[in-house]
Amino acid sequence: MRYLLLAHPKHTYQTTALVVAALIVLASLTINAANAQETQRLSLALPEQQQSPAPLVATEAAESSFHKLHYTLKPNQGLGHALQTINNNGNLLWRISRHENANYFTRLRPGDELIKWVNEDNRLVKMKLKRSPTLTYVLETAPSYDDSLNIYAIQQEVETRIQMVSGQINDSFYLGVQAVGASPRTIMNFANIYSWEVDFVREFRAGDEFTIIFERRYVDGEYIGDGHILAAQLNLRHRNRTINAFRFEHEGELIGYFNEQGENLRKAFMRNPINYTRISSHFQRGRYHPVLQEIRDHKGVDYAAPTGTPIYAAGDGTVKSRGWGRGYGNYIILQHAGRYETVYGHMSRFGKFRQGQRVNQGDVIGYVGMTGLATGPHLHYEFRIDGVHHDPLTVEFPSGDPVPEDLKPLFAQWAGLLKSQLRRTDPTATKLATLFE
Length: 437
Ligand SMILES: [Zn+2]
Hints:
Blueprint (H helix, E strand, L loop, with lengths): L14 H18 L34 E6 L6 H4 L6 H9 L5 H4 L6 E6 L5 E9 L2 E7 L7 E7 L3 E10 L4 H7 L4 H11 L14 E11 L2 E15 L4 E10 L2 E6 L19 E4 L2 E6 L4 E5 L2 E4 L5 E3 L4 E9 L3 E7 L4 E8 L1 E2 L7 E2 L4 E4 L10 E8 L2 E3 L17 H15 L4 H4 L7
Antiparallel strand pairs: 1-2, 2-3, 3-4, 4-5, 6-7, 7-8, 8-9, 9-10, 11-14, 12-13, 14-22, 15-21, 16-17, 16-20, 17-18, 18-22, 19-21, 22-23
The chain binds zinc ion (ZN).
């Protein structure tokens, strides 16, 4: 069975049309997949990225009439080595060098494998280089006409099949998901989608359940890796809480992962704006200040980390100020939507964002240091609402932007169909794995 068209970031087509097509696909999937053993395939047809010119001489069908040679490049070798045994290779190399796509064959790396087709005079008629699982470079030439040479790229069609896995977590989250055949990439994506809602180290209990609907990508029937997660479900049984996640794209751009109400699973702020070694000081009133040697409030959190560790913008916003403060050293204050501000102190140096510039959540705004009053390298981080300091580790964050109003009907349809797929599995009944492909 072969279905076509699902929204894909490389597409610039009308998303509406794609979603409708995808809905039809999923609808048929729902009907046909009552038996989980049945093979189900969804394909995604990528448009040709580049038009291939008409073949000069050696068409695919004609390849077999020529002699086929393989050459694998060794270190410090180039195209000249690969063509050494070819008749009239000097002239050929010169012609290649003048072609606008010469770099397809002149920028070679050790291990690159060139497939050559030569005629009875040992002259080259065709050459191919597989640059990636989806990209092949082709050179064609007619040996009898010295000016005929063509070099172009072929983008292979990627077929995307949709797979659903579900299972229970027993020992650890990672092992649980790995056990049902999800790749490390999909496990990581899954953890990222839910990282705003769940503490993956501490919150899982044996018996918690998950379902993931994700893309597996193929070229010529060969698996090349996982794509996106389209939908997921996490059932934290001990908390009696089920969290669904639906991927939503529009006009080729990811808008986000949302629950069925269209609420963003992402929060407007990251809990910790840094990968830290340990928390060296918590938010507290009346703390003894190690440098000033007096009792003071500590209006933020100190994250100990090596000098140079990147510091991320905790949320989208603009740089309200960037400069030097007596206690803070090099500091940045970010202004976020509404009433929120975040403050970052003791930086060794700043990132590229200047005062007044926009930053996105996760952008590197600076690096850990110990400028100002600090006894060791750390980030001093403050979270302010209407100018009032709150404990960054416990403050309730607002959610990221919900599904835009005008896209809600589209999202509702999409999420509804994905949800009916998620409902099809009962992890307790099927033990560890429900695979279908
Ligand atoms: Zn501090």
